[in-house]
Amino acid sequence: MRVAVLASGRGSNLAALARAIDEGRCAATLAGVLSDRASAPALELARARGLPAIVVPPSAHADRAAWDEALARAIAQLEPGLVVLAGFMRLIGPATLAAFRDRIVNVHPSLLPAFPGMDAPRQALDAGVRITGCTVHLVDAGVDTGRILAQAAVRVSPGDDAARLHARIQAAEHALFPRVVDALARGRSMDEIARFEEGEAPRP
Ligand code: GRF
């Protein structure tokens, strides 16, 4: 299954997905990487692999709706079966949601529905929880509100700051995200995937 990756930042989840594909742990094919930011390091990773690296900057469009439509068109050019958000920092608009209905997944650094939105590891520390983690979920029109597909737990350690906690959550993301993409690429239904708990790998 061809996968289009949307990323705004560092792209460590993209790198983890690429590694899993290279090592035969993920049955997907990378179709290309799209970003809202020309300087996103994730684009470099795409170029290094000879993949399309496409920038759709909001500033080049009259308004949010025009940007959303341009994004939907750019994704469609890659002919993906699945769209994954790996650190994409913008809300997906109605045109993109409609074009890829139930085929967009996101990874978020908390156990949703706790701590949606920005700075989830910071939110977890401020709330004083002992366990947090990461979630892979379907994307809908809300902020991190779509159907939960898989989660993995991460313990908060004494003395954690947001950066240290986020680094451990990201290690969990790098294991969980490629497994969910693999399951989707192998044609597992959302129902089947959602039945696996706490980051248990959906088996091929
Ligand atoms: C990840 O922690 C992800 O959960 C969140 O943004 C971060 C992206 O990190 N949505 P990276 O760019 O994949 O390193």
Description of the structure:
The chain has helices spanning 12-22, 41-48, 64-77, 94-99, 120-127, 162-185, 190-195, and strands spanning 2-6, 29-35, 53-55, 82-85, 104-108, 131-138, 148-155. 38% of the residues lie in helices and 20% in strands. Strand 2 (29-35), helix 2 (41-48) and strand 3 (53-55) form a beta-alpha-beta unit. Helix 1 crosses helix 6 (162-185) and helix 5 (120-127) crosses helix 6. The two termini are 15 Å apart. By secondary structure, it is an alpha/beta fold. The mean pLDDT is 94. The longest helix has 24 residues, at 162-185. The chain contains 7 helices and 7 strands; from the N terminus they run βαβαβαβαβαββαα. The protein has 2 domains: 1-101, Rossmann fold (3-Layer(aba) Sandwich), CATH 3.40.50.170; 106-204, Rossmann fold (3-Layer(aba) Sandwich). It has a 7-stranded mixed β-sheet with strand order 3-2-1-4-5-6-7, sandwiched between helices. The chain is globular, with a radius of gyration of 16 Å. The chain binds 5-O-phosphono-beta-D-ribofuranosylamine.
